[in-house]
Amino acid sequence: MKKVYTIIFSSLFLLSQTTAQLYINTDVYVQNGGVLFAQDTIQLANTAVVATQGIIQSTKGINTNGHFINTGTTGFIISPVANNVAKIFDIGTTLNNKIQLQHTTGSTVTYQMAVRDNIYNNPTINNIQIISKVVGKTWMVQPLTSSTNTNATLYWDAATELTGFTRATSAVSKWITGTSLGWSIVGPYAAATNTGSTPSYSRAVSLGNLSMANVFLGVGSKGSALPVEGLIFDAVANTTDVFVNWKDIEVLNGKIFELERSIDGVNFTNIYTTNNVLLEDYNYTDSKAFFNNNSEVLFYRLKEIDNNGLYTFSDIKRVVAKSANVNSISIYPNPAESLFYIKLYSEKTSEASIILYDVTGKKVLNNTISLYKGLQNIPVNSSQLAKGIYEISIVTGEKNITTQKIIIQ
Fold this sequence. Notes:
Layout: E1 7-9, E2 14-15, E3 22-24, E4 28-30, E5 35-38, E6 41-44, E7 48-50, E8 55-58, E9 61-63, E10 69-70, E11 76-81, E12 87-89, E13 91-92, E14 98-102, E15 109-117, E16 120-122, E17 127-129, E18 137-143, E19 147-156, E20 170-176, E21 184-190, E22 193-194, E23 201-210, E24 215-221, E25 231-237, E26 242-248, E27 256-262, E28 269-274, E29 281-286, H1 289-292, E30 297-305, E31 311-313, E32 317-320, E33 327-332, E34 339-346, E35 350-357, E36 363-371, E37 374-381, E38 388-396, E39 400-408
Parallel strand pairs: 3-6, 4-7, 5-8, 6-9, 7-10, 8-11, 10-13
Antiparallel strand pairs: 1-4, 2-3, 11-15, 12-14, 14-19, 15-18, 16-17, 18-24, 19-23, 20-21, 20-24, 22-23, 25-26, 26-29, 27-28, 27-30, 30-31, 30-32, 33-34, 34-37, 35-36, 35-38, 38-39
């Protein structure tokens, strides 16, 4: 059961006895996980703050009357939006951030919302702040029931635009908790709308049908760390290799692509660069990718660099190795003395035999081992073997997998 903590007011609030609306005529602070709840409309006459996971919630609506609700770093508001009605919520860390929501679900939908300072490569954990070519805000929307044909308009002012941000090529990107592995662009790059007021600029986008997951929204321009438009990007795997392909819809002479790989979905390394010009289709094979990176799961993204030096990223693709027999075997150290390791990938839990033959073909070692699914390092005690060259064979119940040579010294 949710706890309701002390709610701090700087003076008394007034509660209408006729309409049951909650009127607050001064500043209000909701903090430490507290909830200010009204079974009707909440009317605010001054600024409100929801801090440290505080919540202001109404079953009929929240009206800020020219003020705003500061949602800080962990606060939220919860408020309904009627079917096919555009509703603006003045929330954020200043008066100049707000969000408008509209939907056609057929009934009222209640949303949990906030606007935070800063925007990050991974907004679910605030990992790596994006510090250029974006609006320095993150909008958060979570329908508490499914929302159909959801439209959102994000508002900001010039003071929140970070270095290099270009209003003429702005775009909204989204990240859905539990689904997204990276930002994905919503709609095309286009000029921001000048509202002629404060906030000064906005972008309206269609978010489509939303489940009850939390949706992060951000605004970036071309060259930002938010994803690129006009690019079809995919990565698929077999047992050992990953095949990456992309199609560039917006062909531009002099464009450069850098393919990046990661084992954790956060830290990426460039593995391939191409500056082919006037091509639409690109392909790259990352050979023995799972084996070489000692991981059954890999992440890929594409960095597109225009001829003016601006760059953008694709969304992130998560790739899992497909099942196979034991494969991608290596031996280390080689030469070895009293101990060496066999590194291999197995598709499933099974029994296998490691057999060593000397140069005359005589079997000098036959060990039965248990394999588990995935990459593993198997130690082999070679202390009783004479110095020389040996051939290693690994056999499962299905077939002889491979033979390799090891030098014992």
